Amino acid sequence: MPKIKVPNFSNCERFVITDFGAKGDKETTSKAIKMAIEKANKQGCGVVVIPNGEWLTKKIHLKSNVNLHLEDSAKLIFSEDPEDYLPEVFTTWEGMECYNYSPLIYALECQNIAITGKGKLHAKMDVWKTWFSRPEAHLNSLKRLYNLASFDKPVKERQMVNDTSHFRPQFIQFNRSENILLEGVTIVNSPFWTIHPYLSKNVVIRDVKVKAHGHNNDGVDPEMSQNVLIENCIFDQGDDAIAIKSGRNQDAWRLNTPSKNIVMRNCVMKNGHQLVAIGSELSGGVKNILISDCEVISGASMFHLVYIKTNERRGGFVSNIHVNNIKSGSIKKGI
Q1: What is the separation, in whole angstroms, between the first and last Cα of the chain?
Q2: How many CB atoms lie under 10 A from the CB of residue 60?
Q3: pLDDT (tens digit per residue) in 58-113
Q4: Are the CB atoms for 280 and 249 separated by under 8 Å?
């Protein structure tokens, strides 16, 4: 595994969002964060500071060479209104590329980006939780996307924002980005997968606490991503703590990028389905995974420590999976 390049913002100018007009409501806060990110990016390096207090916001789109930093008592609260995550963006749903609601925090083709600090990222769930169910209309939209992907239709044609899809956005998605640091923050709730590095390289996720007990609330989903370190984190999940993925069927075969060189160490899991899942979207292949020195606390509700899952249509491969020095209480199924 090559050395991971971690961005360094120690000599960068700080841009406090109150200097850009943030007052706590979602309109002024969203506008101020956007302006501060743009200024930091234009200067070639900058730290956008969320000061102590509660700040309601809409979506946040990161740019290269920007660190979003939350002070110790800062709480960044994300609106539950789906309209606040439009226009739609180039993203994914369960291993298939499409245009959907923006992730709450989104980075596309960025380099040298970070989210740091001891503050909280909090998703309001009033609307998203009503989308957890998968009624017939949602499943029909999922079939439509599946068919579009199966016949290699251009991603621009896969528009999934409508009244029936209810494809919930990820909380944080790093899409086709490099040199990423996520450190120190606490993340509470998530509409869908919590942290999603997608087709990204050089990712460090360190000292992060995640508590998300909704539907499909995995902790970290590295997908077709490489050189990823996840360490000293605490996961309290409604789904898998770590789910290593590499795309579904034709999209994954087209992109042809395995997930590889992924290390998870010194992490604690309080609840969830699996400590580590590999799949079920793994058509691009998964290799070179090390899980070590992790603990599942006694009394945690869990199915497996390690679960490799797929089906006969997906193709792909799984190799070089190393798991050692794991401490666990009673679990339901094992490995």
Answers
A1: 25
A2: 24
A3: 999 999 999 999 999 999 999 999 999 999 999 999 999 999 999 999 999 999 99
A4: no
Distance CA 110, CA 200 (A): 9
Helices (H), 171-322: 249-255
| 3-state secondary structure at position 312 | coil
- AA identity, residue 223: E
Phi, psi (deg, nearest 5) at residue 299: 90, -5
Tokens of 58: 């809409």
Are β-strands 234-237 and 201-206 bridged in parallel, bridged antiparallel, or unpaired? unpaired
| 8 Å CB contact between 17 and 56 | no
| Contact of 171 with 103, CB cutoff 8 Å | yes
DSSP-based three-state secondary structure for 47 = strand
Q: Rounded to whole angstroms, how far apart are CA atoms 110 and 4?
A: 16
Q: What is the side-by-side order of every strand in the sheet holding 195-198?
A: 60-61, 105-108, 172-175, 195-198
Tell me the DSSP string of 193-204: -SEEEES-EEEE
Q: What is the pLDDT of residues 268-278, one digit of tens each?
A: 999 999 999 99
Task: Check if the beta carbon of residue 242 is closer than 8 Å to that of residue 263.
Answer: no
DSSP at 328: E
Contact criterion met (CB below 8 Å) for 304 and 274:
yes
- The two tokens of residue 210 are 């995640």
Give residue 164's pLDDT band: very low, low, confident or very high (50, 70, 90).
confident
Instruction: Write the single-letter amino acid at 266.
Output: N
Among 48, 47, 60, 51, CA closest to 8: 47
